[in-house]
Amino acid sequence: MVFMSISRRSFVKKAIGTAAGLAAVNVEIVFAGDAERAKEESVGKEKSKEKSDGKFKAMAVQFCGKVGQWEENLRGIANWSQKAAAKDCDLVLFPELAITGYTSKKELVAKTAQTVPGPATDKLLEMAKANDLAISAGITEKAKGKYHITQVTALPDGNLHVYRKRFGGEPNFTWGEPVEPFSFRGLKIGVVICMDARIYELYREYAYAGTNLILKPNSAWQGPWLDGDPETAKRAEADRKVMEVGWESDSYFAATNGMAMICCNTVGDTGNSVYPGGCWYSDGGFGVKESIKLESRKDKLAEQGLIGQFDIAKFKEVLKDIQGDLDRARYYYDD
User: Per DSSP, what are the bridge partners of residue 26?
Assistant: First the structure.
């Protein structure tokens, strides 16, 4: 079933946010070149819809989706999905247009676009089932002669959640309509893509739908840099810090509506631009958030994964605490 709207291993122990304590204490940074491989016994094991341990574990990946190379990109997504499964994750998030590669050039948009469902999403659903987790990744979608920046989330039960970017300045794309959050292992999860996150009303829409967690994929802050150049890595580090200021603002919007947020950005040379990468977790507390500084290799913009663990019960407590405010605010949103 498709849900969509018609209309090196380095281990860091850190608390992310403090006000409501939604995010777990443990955060792990995983590099694409790790010798450790996914353990077979961790892949394919069954998990109940409502997790017995009360935790929700997710990996955000700064990923390099090459433009027009969707099969190669899916192999990379499969590799990271296996790593996430080996770490007992429930969900893995990839950037905006990670499957087809980010471009807004008219000829490349038309060349790289796929239907949804289609060949790429079929493969994504197979991965989700094989690894028993949700896989969220971006794709250039073609539908009824129009093109969309779309984030698809493949669930292990065979369902596919589809969200089309609603706001932005990219040419050659058509913007989407509101989409309900999807339920997965004790949480309601919504999606905003890059510039969507600047629109406060989207968070309020999600809050009224009982959403707990927002996924925010990005492909942002392209620069005229050389992959493999030490100066490029320094520039990327500086630009990630600037970008994180924006993410902090976005996560504040989520927090004031009782929701946590997970972000990730494209990294490296995609064949169209070079991106600085970056991953971010915030909790659903009110105003107190803390970014995780990713360790960067000195001479390369490398793919990395960041794992965070969330307490499901805390999400529900926070949403309950602000329910009165949400109810009073309906006056401004209801017709």
Answer: 13
Contact 23, 16 (CB under 8 A): yes
User: Helices 323-333 and 312-321 sit at what angle, rounded to 10 degrees?
Assistant: 60
pLDDT for 309 equals: 81
pTM of the model: 0.82
- For 259, phi and psi rounded to 5 degrees? -125, 150
Q: Which residue has the higher pLDDT, 5 or 220?
A: 220
Residue where the block lists tokens 């994929």: 217
CATH code of residue 74: 3.60.110.10
* Residue 148 forms part of a structural domain: no
Q: Could you list the residue range(s) of the whole structural domain that residue 246 is in?
A: 55-96+164-333
Task: Report the C-alpha gap between 215 and 63 in whole angstroms.
Answer: 15
d(CA 136, CA 94): 6
Beta-carbon contacts of residue 38 (< 8 Å; ≥ 6 apart): 82, 83, 85, 86
Q: Report how many domains make up the chain.
A: 1
